[in-house]
Amino acid sequence: MFKKSVLSTAAFMVAIVAASGVSPFSFLWVYEPDAPTCLKKEL
Amino acid sequence: MVKRLSDYIASYISNELNYNQDKGEVMSYGLEIIIGGFLKTISLITLSLVLGIFSYTMVGMVSFAVFRTIIGGAHQDTYGKCFVTSITILLCIGALGKNFYFVADSSIWAFLVYGQSFFSTLTWVPAGTEKKEIKNQKLRIKMKSMSIALLTLWIILIILYPIYNYQQYVFSSILGVFTAFFLITPLAYKLMSIKFNFKKGVI
Question: Residue B113: phi, psi to the nearest 5?
Fold first, then answer.
């Protein structure tokens, strides 16, 4: 149960980073990996 | 390496939490950003400390990164190339900032860079890549406005340096901003062998 909570929290935080990576106001200055299709959007 | 490590961790988390493939891909993408950025930041901090240019490099890096997140610009096509190029550029900024900050009146350099950046903002911001291109005109104008507002705030901070006595860092900051805006020019894209049609997104 504890392990699942920790992993869920980590997954949520990683998902926020992933979403910010495709937002118009965060051109990644460090690296630009291929965004997954489900996150891609027309800007 | 970063991609493989991200895929491995994402796959582990997805299995534990019974995520579908889409969620797994999002995990992997987010982890790639985090791990890639972490490795680069740690390497930059370590190398700049070893070379004795830490504070100058950090000022250059922050000045570069703040603008870069809004204005976009050229990217290398692999993590390895990106790692080497950006670490080299930022260490050069730190070294030049430390050794040449006294060569001329920083205000003159700052105004020259402000002019160059202002022109670049009107012409190319936001400068996209094949992976990310902003075509929405309202959004483009918003990003240009943000860039100009940030540039103006930056030049005010530069003008105020005699009052707050941070002259030794001004040149590093100027170099960081210059580099960020240089990387949105067609010349930088050409130097990095990146094919991108600038005409498509220009307002």
Answer: -65, -35
